[in-house]
Write a structure and sequence with these properties.
By secondary structure, this protein is mainly beta. The chain contains no helices and 6 strands.
Length: 73
């Protein structure tokens, strides 16, 4: 889950795929928001996302998710 103290940082809601997801993106899954801590490349364009909370999520090459990308302060 994300820290609620980051409300003053500008953010943009975007659609991400395995090719465009980045560390620091906040992914919405099931109505909850999870910050990507690390990424691991998998075969056939897939990526495994490791969230700050310890959960893992595998994004296949065609998976599309909504994310919040934090801007610079």
């Amino acid at each position: 889950m994300i820290d609620r103290t980051l409300r003053s940082v500008p953010a943009t809601s975007i659609e991400v795929t395995a090719a465009t997801v980045r560390r620091g993106d906040v992914i919405e899954v099931g109505g909850l928001f999870w910050r990507v801590q690390d990424l691991f490349q998998l075969p056939q364009g897939a990526k495994q996302l490791f969230f700050e909370s310890g959960e893992l999520l595998t994004m296949h090459a065609r998976t599309r998710l909504v994310a919040v990308r934090m801007g610079r302060r």
